[in-house]
Amino acid sequence: MDRKIEKKYWTVKRLGLIAVGILVIALIAYNFLYADHRSKLNVETDKISISEVSEGIFDEFIIVQGVVQPLKTIQLDAIVGGYVTNKLVEGGNMVNQGQIILRLENQQLKLNFLQSETEASRLVNELQNTRQRLRVERFNLQKTLSDLDFQIAQAKDSFDRNQQLKNDNVVSDMEYMRTKRDYDKLVKQREIEIQSQKYQQENAEIQIKQLEGTLERTERNVELWRQTLQNLVVKAPVAGLLSSIDVEIGSNINQGQNIGQIDDMNGFKMRVEIDEHYISRIFAGLQANFDFNGSTHKMEITKVYPEVLNGRFGVDMVFADGTPEGIRRGQSSPIRLELGKSEKATLLPVGGFFSDTGGNWVYVVEKDGSKATKRNITLGRKNPRHYEVLDGLNPGEKVVTSSYGNFGDKEVLELK
């Protein structure tokens, strides 16, 4: 009789399947709980820049480009208009004060001058004639008064004699009254003549004063026209270098037109263009350093031009310790402009990463150098060499400072 053979439950196959299942579940659990799911990118270290965070002194400064210019530049503007008849000095030559540079011609100015002179001459003649007439009138007054005084004396004699005769009843009342009227008439006539001559004299004196005032103004006008004619000869107002002159013989120049400039060669300054981002922090008296011929020269801002053109504004700087020997007009050089005091800070070298992250995060290299991971940071001030680190980085840590443009949004860089 056959015996039933019972199958074993825990077979090798079953045990193997259970083991495989447990292993799969373990792998899934490990991958879920412990594996790194961050996005990664393999990067070759020789194609990126890695810089170390350090602790040191943060100097807040910017590097700007300055151009050497004369300390003083005098613009040559045409005081009067005209056409150029003679050009005696070309640009680029030294001139002395008062040296003739150009000669101009203007016929209208000459005509105005002649008309003004003619008017002045007419006024002089009129003034002389008025004074002569006043003298003649004074002589006539004296003559008239002399004749009246003679007639009055005769009339008074007749009147006095008739008055005595009347008292003696020798002459009639009619004869007496006739001599009295003649005498009174002459006395009254003399008073009127004096008043009339006085009025004429006062009127003549008023006319003389008016003519004198008009003549004085006309003579000033003549002198003004004479000076205007003299301005047709353009002279150097100061000694220096005639750096430019933008006219040629035969060209017409308008009044007020700029025709050139003279540079005072007794000193130099630096004209500097600065990004408008710093306009609120730039002021007269700010210090700077300028390297020339192996030496550092201190400079100081003396003037700030508030006009912004193409995102930049200008300032003038002078040399605090005198102009360096050998410096030349038009020479350009970098200048270190100090914006604040030196302070101790955590420093991160400047790199291309900032344009990609805005300074909000960086890739920090782990200690073993195998990878670099994203980390949020906070940056403060900047100079051409370093950023000031406010939070997120410690001295001694290493950061990828080159551009992140090829990394996309990867969170981890696998360094090889």
TrEMBL record:
CC annotations in GO: cell envelope; membrane
Transmembrane annotation, as ranges: 12-33
This protein's UniProt keywords: Coiled coil, Membrane, Transmembrane, Transmembrane helix
Main location as per UniProt: other
Pfam families found in the cross-reference section: RND-MFP_C (PF25967)
Domain Multidrug resistance protein MdtA-like C-terminal permuted SH3 stretches: 346-403
Coiled-coil spans in chain: 117-144, 189-235
Subcellular location field: Cell envelope
Signal peptide per UniProt: none
GO function terms (MF aspect): transmembrane transporter activity
PANTHER family listed in its UniProt record: BLL5650 PROTEIN (PTHR32347:SF23), EFFLUX SYSTEM COMPONENT YKNX-RELATED (PTHR32347)
Family according to the record: Belongs to the membrane fusion protein (MFP) (TC 8.A.1) family.
Name this polypeptide is given: Efflux transporter periplasmic adaptor subunit
